[in-house]
Here is the input.
Amino acid sequence: MSKKYTAFRVTEVAERKYETSIEKLSIDDLPAGEVLIKVHFSSLNFKDALSASGNKGVTRNFPHTPGIDAAGEVVKSDNSAFKKGDKVLVTGFDLGMNTAGGMAEYIQVPADWVVSLPKGLGLRESMVYGTAGLTAGLSVYQLINQGINPDMGKIVVTGASGGVGSMAVAILGKLGFEVVAVTGKESAHVLLKSLGASECIGRDSLNDESKRPILKPLYAGAIDTVGGNMLATILKTLQYNGVATCCGLVNSPALNTSVFPFILKGVRLIGIDSVQCDINLRKVVWDNFASDWKVDYPEDLVDEIGLDGLADKIASILKGQIAGRVLVKI
Ligand code: NDP
Here is the structure.
């Protein structure tokens, strides 16, 4: 008889009605893949909440096991790059979307989705970063790659108390940037400052309704996680040759802007994708997290739960109520 494992499952109980449960499933029913991994930690991201609430743009078929992140030990590998006992992590690709994900005791995935855990990084620590950290890391990498450095001016980060935002604040702070954190939560100011922000401002400060094409230059760079009018406002307030990265849509997927920031100020807007991004670029960012970019992410901002705590946290993240990272210990 096949070995059983525990998973957090989402089931479509009626049209557009979804329920979650913890179930025992058979390891033989995991998707085909070269590497079987015993998951020690996962983490909760906004996308997991979309998957768990039946967003068909993320997950088409139910019942389903969400979890776009997983870190653990290789149990079996048909690929010579990995062997039993190796510590590894998987984020993105199709994990937790239409492939059974990390909110379970086991995952089985193609070898080219798997990253060896770099020396200097623990399994738990890697999932405190998770996809949120990787996305923040890719955003910081792009700012630096585009020539932005701490001497050029302030970097503004939106959705600052969220997973990606708080990680971006911490990494930028560690690298010596002056960080302006945009947050809707006054209660998060103290923590954001302890993470590395030099200033916290409210969401209204970056919500220009004036229709002016360009505003007073304030920032050398921006890491935007929310989209909508906040990103449009950021483009107007960047300095000459400023760079903004864009990864999210919590505010809105719309971006109503004009060409003026680009053609009058040489502003650059860089898209960030952590899902399909090149495996070698991921390795660079994970290696950075194990060395120069390693942040002291405060335990106050890490909410460690088990599979049984997920349903509540999914509801909270959908309402924008989570500050920091939700770590899932399997
Ligand atoms: P979180 O829910 O953890 O954080 C989002 C934060 O945005 C909230 O904590 C809140 O922070 C702020 N926020 C919420 N609602 C609004 C609003 N209406 N207007 C402005 N700000 C708001 O999400 P994540 O950090 O995990 O993800 C952020 C975004 O990035 C999501 O859209 C997600 O889908 C996307 N993402 C994209 C990836 C990619 O590869 N491109 C990878 C990972 C995430 P505060 O209260 O401090 O303002």
